[in-house]
């Protein structure tokens, strides 16, 4: 199986939870659906009617993500502007004022390790070339459009599935549903485990169709688990969050 491995980093990032359109809190990891948007931006797929999402679903996109640096978050005041019905115009029409100051949470100086595979190897090779040359159709970001990101291609080569029933040390998050056997999570004092729920797949009109509960380490360490599917590439061991 051909696979791309690259690093994604930025000064700040904000990844909104699925249950709201304007949340002051952020996910720790970039959710799978946000990775669809990032890859769609690199390839130049349009956002209208969620065309980028349907094209990548047809291509059999699978994504995995992990933390390379310990998780850091901060809160900053952000001005929200009501753009409906000319309420943004500085007149007496908006009795609450033009802007609404809101404290937003951001991840700070985060660096992610991302793995990408597709059944459409032609499109996968095109993605690898664009990542290598830093030739993106649209600007890429860490969630919000103004939080620009950088990428560094690590490898584009074969990845191999591991056949191991004992504990595996993963560089990425893993789906809770993929864990198997008794004591499937290796507990020790060096690994700070965290669990977050993301949207795994959308249906029409961006309505969540499937969810995934992801397990990862917030201090940038490898997690130690027993899981159904894991893959090896270069010195990394990883799992996909939307692997069926």
Task: Give the structure's gist in a few sentences.
This protein is mainly β and 244 residues long.
Please give the domain count: 1
Estimate the mean pLDDT confidence: 91
Task: Outline the low-pLDDT stretches.
Answer: none
Q: In terms of structural class, how would the helical and strand content be classed? A: mainly beta
Kindly report how far apart the N and C termini lie: 15 Å
Query: What's the story with the biggest beta sheet?
Result: 4 strands, antiparallel
- Tell me, briefly, the overall form: globular
**What is the N-to-C succession of helices and strands?**
EEHHEEEEHEEEEEEEEE
Beta-strand content estimate:
35-45%
The count of β-strands is 15
Helix content: 10-25%
Tally of helical segments: 3
The first-level CATH class name: Alpha Beta
Pfam families: Cas_Cas5d
Organism: Anaerocolumna xylanovorans DSM 12503
Keywords: Antiviral defense
Protein name: CRISPR-associated protein Cas5h
